Amino acid sequence: MLHFFKSGRQKEYTAQVQKAIAEIDAGNESYLPVAYQLLVNADARAMEEIAEAVAAYMRRLNPAGILHLNEHFRQYTSMEWWIEWRKVDIDIWEKTISDKDNFLWLVRLGTMHPNGWFREKCIRKLEGDKASAKFLLLRLNDWVEPVRKAAWDIYELMPDLNFEEAMDSFPYMEKLVRSERVNISYIHRIENRLIEILQANFAAVLHLNMKIYDERSRKYLYRLIMEHKLSDQETIKAILKREKSGQCQKVIMTLFMDQYELSPEEAEAFLSYKGMVVQRMTLEYKYGLLGNYWDGVEKMLLSPYASVREFTRYILKRHTEIDILQYYRERLDTEKRTICILGIGESGKAEDAEILMPFLEDKDAATVRNAIHAISLLKGDDARELYWKLLTDGRPVVMRAAYREMAANNIAYGAKQVFELYRNTDSEALKEKLSCQFQRENSWERLPYLLQLYWCENDKIQETVRKCIARRSMYGKVSWAEAERILTILHDEANRIPEEVQKSIAFDLKYVTVKPQ
């Protein structure tokens, strides 16, 4: 990639440095390896500038960004084809870079380098730096054993973490415990230290605003609390009520049900908790205990979660004669109307769609939206004309719902019909949906219409249109007359189609056009 190294031309090298820095400043992580290669031949000024750019980029990363970079940094380039990284002296970098924090960010990134010798050098530069602990944790699963050992040697000597520093390590521990190469004894020893910190600060844990921690951190925290019994049942229940993430709820519920032998009555209490995961897992758990219907389980037919309603129907159909459709019909006038509408769609037959037609005229857009989806569940493609009609309802919620069902059922209406509605509507939101609808139309049938939209002022529509134009089926057939029409529109100066696009389409037409007999 960087041929200028062999040329020795300073101007070209300086230009490459500035280019790499500009790309890194713009958030282009693929230039981080380029910057690393540039460092090898950098003078003091270039080294300072590169280090500052890399450090600024790294400081902006959240845990998800660091974990992503850990997986991808080494994949952008081997960085090995002209540099013998084993012999690169990073002591020179340390002496040259005046801002020591910038240097630390360089070597933290270096712990992800593809060369094992170099990774180990960088690891050893992190000794005593608690802010680098998370980078050492990631290397405990390194694919090279000496690197894993070096990471542990440095981590073990790390000063004790405080509570916030421990919490900051949780996303990386969550990944580490799911890894394959890590020495399990490392995990146990690290977790023992973390548990001590949690025990000393557990009152603070209970009052944390958990929203400030990412999902990985919370999952790992809950696992530690549950597996090591750091809290009682009531406190765990309180935490569960606060937690919104389904993945985190699953961790808590799985461990809670493993640790405590709940009676059917105790399990029942969880059905009042919010969250699809909690309700579904509770239903499955209680059903596993009883193996039969229990009084009142039918109320879960009114859960806001489709998965919960599905499992409830399974229980009722297997063990009772309850008419589920009638159950929903009888409650259409209650506050659970919108859920009952969905329930009819999930449990009825195609003819039951008539029950839902009056709700399409309802003043409440959410009711109409659910009615559209329920009708789609019952009739699918057979309700195509209804979806088309509702596109022009005027209410954005209804229009989006109608389009969603068109897309879900993969319905094509003909490019001409789509284009005419596009041309006749003033709604930009509808135009965006119609531009997406072109993706489901025949690639050659839609082409003359798309060409007329090539320079649409709406950037989102323009992008969709041009992608559709580029996706042309070479297995299609185009009549001679239609090919002539496409070429006429293609070469019409008013449409301003770029020459390279004209040539590409004209070339493809040669192979799909059916010549007249």
Kindly describe this structure.
This protein is an all-alpha fold and 517 residues long. Helix content is 64%, strand content 1%. The chain has 31 helices and two strands. Strands 1-2 form a two-stranded parallel ribbon. The protein is flat, with a radius of gyration of 31 Å. The two termini are 54 Å apart.
Question: Could you give a short description of this structure?
Answer:
The chain has 517 residues and is mostly helical. Helices cover 64% and strands 1% of the residues.
Question: Residue share in helices?
Answer: 55-70%
Characterize the overall form. Answer: flat
Count of helical segments? Answer: 31
Placed side by side, the strands forming the largest sheet appear as 1-2
Count of β-strands: 2
CA-to-CA gap between the ends?
54 Å
Q: What's the multimeric state? A: single chain
Mean pLDDT over all positions: 93
Query: How does the helix and strand content classify structurally?
Result: mainly alpha
Describe the biggest sheet?
2 strands, parallel
State Rg. Answer: 31 Å
Low-confidence stretches: 1-6
Strand content bin:
under 5%
